[in-house]
Specification:
The protein is α/β, with parallel strands linked by helices. The protein contains eight helices and 26 strands. The chain has three domains: 4-116 and 249-323, 3-Layer(bba) Sandwich (FAD/NAD(P)-binding domain), CATH 3.50.50; 119-246, FAD/NAD(P)-binding domain (3-Layer(bba) Sandwich), CATH 3.50.50.60; 344-402, Enolase-like, domain 1 (2-Layer Sandwich), CATH 3.30.390. Helix content is 22%, strand content 29%. The strands form seven sheets. The chain has a five-stranded parallel beta sheet, with helices on one face. The longest helix has 19 residues, at 305-323. Bound molecules: flavin-adenine dinucleotide. Flavin-adenine dinucleotide binds at residues 8-14, 33-36, 43-44, 46-47, 85-86, 112-115, 132-133, 159, 251, 254, 284-285, 302-304, 307, 338-340.
Length: 410
């Protein structure tokens, strides 16, 4: 019988894992299961040009088509099972159950179910509340963007700040509420976070830090329609729209009951093998694995370059298992990298600035981000990250090569 590999999660990591399995010589059956009804599409534009570049009547079909990845011809024979999520699994028996009642048998599994947004507590009011993770979310938000709409973005991380930037460019009056002392603290540190706040406020954004949201208030005439956001100190912010951008949950529920460590994503070894299971690998935002470029602590990384990198290595691991070859023991040491576009600035990060104990300005000035800035992030004097702001792309390589260079730290 031909082997059956099932990939769960039909986005970037799932797509790349299927393509890489074929590239590794796997010729058996491949099924990709996706909760969304769309084939894989690119998410980063959802908080940026996909919102600003379309009118309020853009449809889900048009947007998903415009952002769709073009799969390689090597997976033209893949079976797509879209629009029905995996709801449970019996890994010992090799069985996967979908919400539509189907049960799929597998010899090997790729876990690529990514994340979903965390939501503010409280079910009401229901209308006027948005998240940005899927094309459906972006279409719903775009339709709500009328001129001079009052929007409160809860959460000043990268996606929150990008959405704030895009909404401002579309004429919305935007306030960002962030409980930490500065926006994007974990990603860029206190100094650059403060500088980005000052830059963004200069362009008209209101930023409130050190405050969480205690509750939402519905309109007097229609309690289901959001009308205001109440902060921890009692301040009320009038709001026609609330964008909840307060982090995410790994989609692991369908793996429960199999004895896996699902504390934060799926715990894997350095070869992306789900701990204790030779026939199961994970890739993308959901994979928590140690990266010896930095240390031996397993972490998830939510950057666009990681689905591709992890899918490639996971496919090698799985193809070796399926063909009976010895698994490679070369350490897997990807360099995390992400970009972000906000209020006319292009941020480019290499490495893991969040691991640093010290940040120093390597080039430029914190009060002139438009003029170009490079921040270096050090842990025990070792460069573990760099964030470049408005630096020409031709300069990227120099900094990328300098961050956490190999040979390994451990
Ligand atoms: C709005 C936004 C902007 C971003 N901007 C940037 C950026 O500028 N730069 C950058 O580096 N990164 C950015 N990212 C991050 C980047 O897009 C992610 O790292 C990447 O999408 C992760 O891919 P993934 O395949 O691991 O997970 P996902 O893209 O989350 O895909 C997981 C898929 O699995 C499906 N799924 C979930 N549960 C189940 C289930 N039970 N059964 C079947 N299917 C299931 C989901 O529906 C989804 O389609 C952004 C992300 C978002 C949301």
């Amino acid at each position: 019988m031909r082997p059956q590999v099932v990939v769960v999660g039909a986005s970037l990591a799932g797509l790349r894992a299927a393509e890489q399995l074929r590239a590794q010589g796997y010729a058996g059956d491949l099924t990709i299961v996706g909760a969304e009804k769309h084939k894989p599409y690119n998410r980063p534009p959802l908080s940026k040009e996909a919102l600003s570049g379309h009118g309020p009547d853009v449809t889900v079909e048009a947007l998903s088509a415009s952002l769709a990845f073009r799969p390689k011809s090597s997976i033209a024979d893949v079976r797509w099972q879209l629009g029905s999520p995996a709801v449970s699994s019996d890994l010992a028996e090799g069985l996967l159950s979908l919400a539509n009642g189907q049960v799929l048998a597998f010899d090997a599994l790729v876990v690529a179910t990514g994340l979903r947004p965390r939501r503010l507590l409280g079910d009401t009011p229901t209308r006027g509340r948005h998240v940005v993770r899927t094309v459906d979310d972006a279409v719903s938000l775009r339709a709500a963007l009328v001129p001079a709409v009052r929007a409160v973005v809860v959460g000043g991380g990268f996606i929150g700040c990008e959405v704030a930037s895009t909404l401002t460019s579309l004429g919305a009056r935007v306030t960002v509420v962030e409980p930490l002392p500065v926006p994007m603290l974990r990603g860029v540190g206190a100094e650059l976070g403060a500088a980005l706040r000052a830059h963004h406020e200069h362009t008209g954004l209101q930023v409130i830090t050190g405050q969480g949201v205690s509750r939402l208030i519905g309109a007097t005439e229609d309690a289901e329609q959001v009308a205001a956001v109440v902060l921890d100190d009692g301040t009320e912010l009038a709001a026609d729209l609330v964008i909840e951008s307060i982090g995410s949950h790994p989609n692991t529920e369908w793996l429960q009951g199999n004895g896996l460590d699902l504390t934060d994503g799926v715990l894997c070894d350095n070869q992306l093998r789900v701990e204790g299971r030779a026939e199961i690998v994970a890739a993308g935002d959901i994979a928590r694995f140690p990266n010896p470029r930095f240390d031996d602590i397993a972490r998830r990384v939510e950057h666009w370059n990681m689905p591709g990198e992890t899918a490639k290595r996971a496919a090698v691991t799985l193809a070796d298992h399926l063909s009976g070859h010895a698994t490679t023991t070369d350490p897997f040491t990807p360099l995390p990298a992400f970009w972000s576009d906000q209020f006319g600035l292009r941020l480019q990060s290499f490495g893991s600035p969040g691991l640093a104990d010290t940040a120093v300005v390597e080039h430029g000035a914190l009060d002139d981000l438009d003029g170009g800035l490079v921040m270096a992030y050090l842990r025990k004097d070792r460069l573990v990250g760099a964030v470049l702001v408005n630096v020409p792309a031709s300069e990227y390589r120099r900094y990328r090569d300098a961050v956490a260079p190999l040979p390994l730290a451990v």
